[in-house]
Amino acid sequence: MSEKIAVRTTDAPAPAHTFSQGVRKGPFVQVSGQGPVDPATSEYLYPGDVAAQTTRTLQNVKAIIDASGATFDDVVMLRVYLTKREDFAIMNDAYGAFVTANTTGDVLPSRTTVFTGLPREEMLVEIDAIAIVSE
CA torsion angle for 122, 48, 63, 77 (degrees, to 10)? Predict the structure, then answer.
């Protein structure tokens, strides 16, 4: 049985609460929900701009994936949480640009999008991920 290891990086925001940025157990990596936060300042960025928030959030997810020893090509699932249905098309365009730019093969990660309230009022998007490290 493989050990459960916390994934940590200064290239993504430190957790504000009692959880890890990510957890790796064997080949499996789970990234905790990330938002549009600057890792250096812990400030929420791009108020009101769902496209910019989506890109910043995905950069944070990718930093944690990279720190785990996986690559973005190892991501099998991304879950996107939005506060407003009206933001879906804008998020989808920014998401598509980031994911295709960071995936080398033809197979993109699976995705689920959920509309919900988020922990901070300035957050328009939150994203988590699951990756399976290639052997």
Answer: 90
- Note down pLDDT in tens along the chain; length 135 residues: 689 999 999 999 999 889 999 999 999 999 999 999 999 999 999 999 999 999 999 999 999 999 999 999 999 999 999 999 999 999 999 999 999 999 998 999 999 999 999 999 999 999 999 999 986
* Per-position DSSP letters for 52-113, written without gaps between them: HHHHHHHHHHHHHHHHHT--GGGEEEEEEEES-GGGHHHHHHHHHHHHHHH--SS-PPEEEE
**Whole-angstrom Cα distance, residue 67 to residue 32?**
13
- Predicted model pTM: 0.96
Rounded to the nearest 5 degrees, what angle is found at the Cα of 65, between the Cα atoms of 10 and 73?
145
Task: In whole angstroms, give the CA distance from residue 13 to residue 123.
Answer: 14
